[in-house]
Write a structure and sequence with these properties.
By secondary structure, the protein is α+β, with helices and mostly antiparallel strands. The chain has one domain (39-149): minor pseudopilin epsh domain (minor pseudopilin epsh fold, 3-Layer(bab) Sandwich). The protein is built from two helices and ten strands. The strands form three sheets. The chain has a four-stranded antiparallel β-sheet, with helices on one face. Strands 4-8-9-10 form a four-stranded antiparallel β-sheet, covered by helices on one side. A two-stranded antiparallel sheet has the order 5-6. The protein is elongated and about 90 Å long. The mean pLDDT is 90.
Protein backbone atom coordinates (compact mmCIF):
# COMPACT_ATOMS: atom_id res chain seq x y z
CA UNK A 1 0.00 0.00 0.00
CA UNK A 2 1.27 3.41 -0.80
CA UNK A 3 0.84 6.46 1.31
CA UNK A 4 -1.47 9.20 0.23
CA UNK A 5 -1.06 12.86 0.98
CA UNK A 6 -1.81 13.53 4.62
CA UNK A 7 -0.90 10.01 5.88
CA UNK A 8 1.97 9.99 8.32
CA UNK A 9 4.01 7.27 9.93
CA UNK A 10 6.18 4.43 8.73
CA UNK A 11 5.27 1.02 7.48
CA UNK A 12 6.34 -2.25 9.01
CA UNK A 13 8.70 -2.87 6.09
CA UNK A 14 10.41 0.48 6.65
CA UNK A 15 10.78 -0.29 10.35
CA UNK A 16 12.36 -3.68 9.63
CA UNK A 17 14.82 -2.08 7.20
CA UNK A 18 15.82 0.53 9.78
CA UNK A 19 16.35 -2.14 12.45
CA UNK A 20 18.41 -4.24 10.01
CA UNK A 21 20.67 -1.26 9.27
CA UNK A 22 21.17 -0.60 13.00
CA UNK A 23 21.96 -4.28 13.61
CA UNK A 24 24.61 -4.27 10.86
CA UNK A 25 26.18 -1.08 12.24
CA UNK A 26 26.30 -2.51 15.77
CA UNK A 27 27.80 -5.77 14.51
CA UNK A 28 30.57 -3.84 12.76
CA UNK A 29 31.30 -1.23 15.45
CA UNK A 30 30.97 -3.25 18.67
CA UNK A 31 33.99 -5.58 18.17
CA UNK A 32 36.20 -2.57 17.40
CA UNK A 33 35.37 -0.86 20.70
CA UNK A 34 37.88 -1.48 23.49
CA UNK A 35 36.60 -3.53 26.39
CA UNK A 36 38.17 -1.98 29.46
CA UNK A 37 38.61 -3.88 32.69
CA UNK A 38 36.05 -2.69 35.23
CA UNK A 39 36.66 -2.02 38.92
CA UNK A 40 35.08 -5.38 39.75
CA UNK A 41 37.23 -7.08 37.12
CA UNK A 42 40.41 -5.54 38.51
CA UNK A 43 39.39 -6.62 42.00
CA UNK A 44 38.83 -10.16 40.70
CA UNK A 45 42.32 -10.24 39.14
CA UNK A 46 43.76 -9.01 42.45
CA UNK A 47 41.97 -11.78 44.34
CA UNK A 48 43.14 -14.39 41.81
CA UNK A 49 46.74 -13.22 42.22
CA UNK A 50 46.41 -13.28 46.02
CA UNK A 51 44.97 -16.79 45.78
CA UNK A 52 48.03 -18.00 43.85
CA UNK A 53 50.34 -16.42 46.43
CA UNK A 54 48.44 -17.96 49.36
CA UNK A 55 48.44 -21.39 47.71
CA UNK A 56 52.21 -21.18 47.17
CA UNK A 57 52.77 -20.20 50.81
CA UNK A 58 50.64 -23.11 52.00
CA UNK A 59 52.46 -25.50 49.65
CA UNK A 60 55.84 -24.34 50.99
CA UNK A 61 54.74 -25.04 54.57
CA UNK A 62 53.09 -28.37 53.71
CA UNK A 63 56.00 -29.67 51.57
CA UNK A 64 58.76 -28.25 53.74
CA UNK A 65 60.49 -26.68 50.70
CA UNK A 66 60.92 -23.28 49.12
CA UNK A 67 58.20 -22.39 46.60
CA UNK A 68 58.62 -19.51 44.15
CA UNK A 69 55.79 -17.51 42.61
CA UNK A 70 57.04 -16.18 39.26
CA UNK A 71 56.04 -12.74 38.01
CA UNK A 72 56.44 -11.69 34.38
CA UNK A 73 55.93 -7.97 33.98
CA UNK A 74 56.41 -8.19 30.20
CA UNK A 75 53.71 -10.83 29.58
CA UNK A 76 51.49 -9.80 32.50
CA UNK A 77 51.45 -13.22 34.16
CA UNK A 78 51.66 -14.51 37.71
CA UNK A 79 52.60 -18.21 37.80
CA UNK A 80 52.34 -20.51 40.81
CA UNK A 81 55.49 -22.43 41.67
CA UNK A 82 53.43 -25.08 43.46
CA UNK A 83 50.81 -26.06 40.89
CA UNK A 84 51.61 -24.09 37.72
CA UNK A 85 48.38 -22.06 37.87
CA UNK A 86 48.67 -18.86 35.83
CA UNK A 87 46.85 -15.57 36.26
CA UNK A 88 46.96 -13.75 32.90
CA UNK A 89 46.30 -10.03 33.26
CA UNK A 90 44.59 -8.12 30.44
CA UNK A 91 46.65 -5.63 28.47
CA UNK A 92 44.78 -2.63 29.85
CA UNK A 93 45.90 -3.43 33.41
CA UNK A 94 49.24 -1.92 34.44
CA UNK A 95 51.33 -4.48 36.36
CA UNK A 96 54.20 -3.41 38.64
CA UNK A 97 56.05 -5.16 41.43
CA UNK A 98 58.30 -4.05 44.28
CA UNK A 99 60.40 -7.06 45.23
CA UNK A 100 63.48 -7.90 47.24
CA UNK A 101 66.75 -8.04 45.30
CA UNK A 102 68.03 -10.92 47.40
CA UNK A 103 66.50 -13.50 49.69
CA UNK A 104 68.40 -16.02 51.75
CA UNK A 105 71.66 -14.93 50.18
CA UNK A 106 70.51 -15.53 46.58
CA UNK A 107 69.29 -13.15 43.90
CA UNK A 108 65.55 -13.51 43.39
CA UNK A 109 64.76 -11.19 40.47
CA UNK A 110 61.07 -11.40 39.59
CA UNK A 111 59.92 -14.06 42.05
CA UNK A 112 58.40 -14.09 45.49
CA UNK A 113 59.87 -16.94 47.52
CA UNK A 114 57.92 -18.68 50.25
CA UNK A 115 59.99 -20.55 52.83
CA UNK A 116 59.05 -23.78 54.67
CA UNK A 117 58.66 -21.75 57.88
CA UNK A 118 55.85 -19.70 56.30
CA UNK A 119 58.05 -16.64 55.91
CA UNK A 120 58.70 -15.10 52.52
CA UNK A 121 60.95 -12.63 50.77
CA UNK A 122 57.97 -10.30 50.69
CA UNK A 123 56.97 -7.85 48.05
CA UNK A 124 54.12 -5.86 46.61
CA UNK A 125 52.29 -6.44 43.35
CA UNK A 126 50.45 -3.38 42.02
CA UNK A 127 47.60 -3.70 39.52
CA UNK A 128 46.14 -0.44 38.19
CA UNK A 129 43.77 1.08 35.65
CA UNK A 130 43.15 4.81 35.29
CA UNK A 131 41.54 5.93 38.52
CA UNK A 132 41.59 2.54 40.29
CA UNK A 133 44.17 0.12 41.59
CA UNK A 134 44.99 -2.58 44.12
CA UNK A 135 48.16 -3.62 45.90
CA UNK A 136 48.71 -7.26 46.80
CA UNK A 137 51.15 -7.16 49.70
CA UNK A 138 53.17 -10.16 50.88
CA UNK A 139 54.67 -9.76 54.34
CA UNK A 140 58.23 -11.03 54.69
CA UNK A 141 57.92 -12.08 58.32
CA UNK A 142 54.63 -13.97 58.15
CA UNK A 143 54.26 -14.59 54.42
CA UNK A 144 50.71 -13.28 54.83
CA UNK A 145 48.94 -11.89 51.76
CA UNK A 146 46.61 -8.90 51.83
CA UNK A 147 44.87 -6.79 49.21
CA UNK A 148 44.56 -3.04 49.75
CA UNK A 149 43.36 -0.22 47.48
CA UNK A 150 46.24 1.56 45.76
CA UNK A 151 46.58 5.33 45.68
CA UNK A 152 45.91 6.06 42.01
CA UNK A 153 45.28 9.45 40.44
Amino acid sequence: MSKTAGEEGITLLEMVCILAIFAILIAVVLPAMPHATTRAGLEAYSMAAASVLKADRNAAIRRGTVVATNLSLTTGTIRSGANGRVVQLPRDVAFHAVLADQCGGQAVGTVILFLPSGMSCGGTIILTRPGIGYEIRVGWLTGGVEIVPANVL
